[in-house]
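Q: What would this chain look like folded?
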Amino acid sequence: MKRVADVTQVPENAQKLILNGRSLTSEVDSEDVGQRSLVDLKILNHSKIMVLGKRREPNGEVDVQLKRLESRSAELEKRLEEEVIAKIEDVDADGRKRMLKTCKGVGEEFMRQLESLDAMRFDDNDGDSKAARKTLARDINKRLDKNEELIKRLES
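A: My prediction, written as C-alpha cells:
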C-alpha cells in the first residue's frame, strides 16, 4: 500500500483497494500480509485495481515540518544500517560500545521527533495533515522499535 500511496498520492490510511468487486484493503491489513503473495490475493498480470480515497492536500508550513521530520527519520535509519547493522557481527568490545552509543543517540533523536509530532497543532478541518502525522509517527515508532532491538542485542 505504500507503493500505491507513492504513485497515487493517496495516503495509506485513506486508501481502499478494490479488485473484482472485493476489498483488498482488509486482506492487505491482516497480520499474515508478509506471508501472502500476489497470487494468494488473486492479483495477476494486467489486473486492474481500483483505488478509492482522497489525495492529500498540501498545507504549507505543516507539510514542510512533516517532510523535514520524515527525511531526518530516514537519515537516522540509514545511519543505523550503515554504522551498526552492517557491522554488528564483526566487532570487538570497543566497537560494540561505540555502536551502543550510536543506537542510544539515534533513539533519543527518534523520541524528540515523536515529541515534535505530538506538539503540532492543526485546524479542525485539516484531516490530511493529521493523517500524515499519524503515518509518520507510526513509521518513527517502527524505527524506534528496531533501534531498541539493536540496543538489546548489543547489550547481551
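Residues 2-52 form one domain.
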